[in-house]
Write a structure and sequence with these properties.
- The protein is α/β, with parallel strands linked by helices.
- It has two domains: 70 residues, no CATH class; 56 residues.
- Helix content is 32%, strand content 23%.
- It is elongated and about 65 Å long.
Length: 149
């Protein structure tokens, strides 16, 4: 498995309409980095697609001889990015709106949730995760008597 073969396979993956996400899990023994800083020939290359997983795996194994793990994802990269852009315009006061390919979600970071997660999931589906900075205390929370000592 060469870096050039990996680059060709990576270009094929990125162009696939069903492509969701990919990452390389480093091997226990690190290989020297190539010109681009990749360890393309060391570790397992994980690739996710929304459809035709077996077909993509067959093609990728013929293109690149290194270890791969090809699995199914619920949303493609394009779907998550489109959803992310839509949510960013729906929630302009969000700190960040990120399409996370590993989890297959769009993560929205805001000050408070206040039902925003339910609202966004109702409008856009289950791929939405709202990550509020401020989380209310439980209603039954009691400060221990010795807390301030």
């Amino acid at each position: 498995a060469s870096t050039l073969a990996w680059e060709a396979a990576h270009a094929y993956v990125e162009a696939a309409p069903d492509f969701a996400y990919s990452w390389t899990e480093p091997a226990a023994v690190s290989a020297p980095l190539d010109f681009y800083g990749y360890e393309a020939t060391a570790g397992v290359w994980h690739i996710t697609f929304t459809d035709n997983v077996a077909g993509y795996e067959t093609v990728l194994r013929s293109m690149w001889g290194g270890p791969i793990c090809v699995t199914r994802a619920d949303y493609s990269k394009v779907e998550l990015e489109t959803l992310s852009e839509s949510i960013a315009s729906d929630v302009p006061d969000a700190f960040s709106v990120v399409a996370d390919g590993v989890s297959g979600t769009v993560i929205v970071q805001t000050w408070f949730d206040r039902g925003l997660g339910d609202e966004l999931r109702g409008k856009h589906g289950d791929a939405i995760v709202v990550d509020p900075v401020m989380v209310p205390l439980a209603t039954d929370f009691v400060v221990p008597d010795d807390f301030y000592r």
